[in-house]
Amino acid sequence: MVDHDARLALLHDWLSRELRMRPRRIEPASSDASFRRYFRAFCADGTYIVMDAPPGREDVRPYLRVTKLLEPLGVHVPHVYEADEQRGLLLLEDLGHTPYLSRLAEPGAAGPLYGAALEALARIQVLGAEAAAGLPPYGRAVLRREMDLMPEWFMERHLGIVPTDEERAVLEAAFEWLIGEALAQPQVFVHRDYHSRNLMLTAERSPGVLDFQDALRGPVGYDLVSLLKDCYIAWPRGRVLEWVQEYRALLAARGGPAGQDAAQFLRWFDLIGVQRHLKVLGIFARLWHRDGKPGYLGDLPLTLRYVRETCRLYGELAPLGALLEGRIAAELPRANARAVGGPGT
Q1: What is the DSSP string of 154-176?
Q2: Which of 3, 165, 215, 329 is the most exposed place for a label (fewest CB within 10 A)?
Q3: What's the predicted TM-score (pTM) here?
């Protein structure tokens, strides 16, 4: 708390003394799963967002680099007005108060909102081909490191399940197969968190796109599955398939990597979804057990459901599916209930 108070004082001094903005008030805007915090500054000429990224824990340079890649594509990312890289402070355009998640459940809202999000994603993946070449690869090491979070943090730390040698062999085989499938997909500009909490409903050029600093060059299906198999809101499989094919048609019309046929594209979508959701299971559990952030525990059941459902669709994932059904699914409600007692209990 003391460190946070010092950062807030630094932020206020930066705005008032160095940028001469003299904000009338500053209030929290949002926070995320990292050490970054965001504040809304109310000034005479409007509102701004200030990112507070403490040096040593966060680095604003990737954010600035990816902003410069996305803005020329016409993607509505927050414009950067001022940056103090050394102290981890950015003055950003305010994209408002309305994330997609707050509107998607309204009658008739999902179609137009997802339509706009798919258009923006196609812009990123097709027009961003040259920009993607300058991004680090979403390669074998990254894909494997992400999935390894699942047995470490979700199975062992959260569920209290230590995998047997046989179960570790099942995980090893599934992880390696999923890596091969991911690397075989066309490689494009990947946002990595293109979902309903990071897409903002804006008056102009909606959606506004947030939280893109970890972008990599990777599988074409990754951002699409982040959007349509969102860990915070779920849709019937039939509707998801309609949106997947709508997106494939967008890519094909613009000369993007749409695959040989609809079946191949759907396979790309489904299988990279398993990789992503295995990773997310580990991340959500780690946020609680390591960082003391319980807010994502309630999203674990949906995330696990996505993996279980896809394992039923692809024979190669049947052993992983059997492990999930036999050892893991029933333990999650009990583990979440135990979490009320505190981290690690």
Answers
A1: IIIIII-----HHHHHHHHHHHH
A2: 165
A3: 0.94
Q: What is the DSSP letter of 6?
A: H
Helix or strand run (H / E) with residue 216: strand 216-219
Q: What CATH homologous superfamily does 100-341 map to?
A: Aminoglycoside phosphotransferase (APH), C-terminal lobe (3.90.1200.10)
Instruction: Tell me what percent of the residues of the chain surpass a pLDDT of 70.
Output: 97
Low-confidence spans in the chain with pLDDT less than 70: 1-4, 31-34, 342-345
Instruction: Dihedral sign for Cα 223, 54, 287, 139, please.
Output: positive
Span 49-89, pLDDT tens digits:
999 999 989 999 999 999 999 999 999 999 999 999 999 99
| Pairing label, strands 89-93, 187-190 | unpaired
8 A C-beta contact, residue 59 and residue 18: no
What would be the CATH architecture of the domain defined by 2-93? 2-Layer Sandwich (3.30)
Q: Is 302 exposed, middle or buried (0-12, 13-18, 19+ CB in 10 A)?
A: middle
Hey, what are 232's tokens? 């915070």
d(CA 4, CA 1): 5
Residue 1: what pLDDT?
A: 37
User: What is the radius of gyration, based on Cα positions, of the chain?
Assistant: 21
CA distances from 309 to 115, 193, 237, 320 (A): 25, 21, 10, 11
